[in-house]
Amino acid sequence: MKNQSIGVFRNYRLGAGLLLALGVVACTEKATTPPTTAPPTTPVAPVVNEEAKNYADYTNLVWSDEFNGSSLDQTKWGYDLGGNGWGNNELQNYTNSNDNSFVNGGNLTIQARRQQSGSNAYTSARLLTKGKQTFVYGRIDTRAKIPKGKGVWPAIWMLGADIDQNNWPKCGEIDIMELRGSRPKELLPTMHFADGAGARRLKGTTNTVAVDLSEDYHIYSVVRSKDQIRMFLDGQLYYTFGTADTAGASYPFNNPFFMILNVAVGGDFDGNPDASTVFPQQMQVDYVRYYQYK
């Protein structure tokens, strides 16, 4: 009996030692293995001004040109040059001459002239902010007095800033104001974009107004929000475009765009000038202003 007790005691000591050793190992593992925690979720900050708000809510002036100097501010504007028809069989040669664009009396004047320039019978100007200023969400106002006459084609519009990487129409085009000079009471906003195969798609409207738009200054506005674009004439909404209007095609209009101001002559839009068309014809721009809400 005595020897048996010793054996039991030894077995007990052996078992207790084994349990102690396992406990030490377990404690060591717990001490050296750091607890795992899920990485913190980074909230997605909304893009500035992506939410659509009322026209009057855009009160924070971010960028503007008031055209108060004696010459064009070339830190803000550059020139498109040439007379290659511009894809529309247009007749003018765009120049950087003071005959075709100048700043005076608080206005930018873009002037189309009947003037031979190489093989082109007319000259004019096309100014743009490409490489100098781009715009995303917010409201752009252009206060302008536009010309008229058969074959005269004034435009206030925008192109996607990635046009050098994504050729037109993939980059997108926003026509804020186009006017057929022979129909000075018709205002045409149009959106150009590409389908899945890269072919041009467009959607717009013809807005007939009560007055001849060439007789006075008007404010032509675009308000860009995420997935939505709205056009206004003197603060009154006249066109809305959104993602559903692309019918499943790409929607490039959440990207940065640059501004363009020009007066074309002739081509596919209103035909060529006739005997009734008087030259020179001028688009006078009082200001271009870019607002966001606070």
TrEMBL record:
One of its GO terms (molecular function) is hydrolase activity, hydrolyzing O-glycosyl compounds. Coiled coil: none annotated. Residues 1-26 form the signal peptide. The keyword Signal applies. Keywords: Signal. The keyword Transmembrane helix does not apply. InterPro entries: Beta-glucanase-like, ConA-like_dom_sf, Glycosyl_Hydrlase_16. Residues 56-294 form the GH16 domain. GO terms for biological process: carbohydrate metabolic process. Belongs to the glycosyl hydrolase 16 family. This is GH16 domain-containing protein.
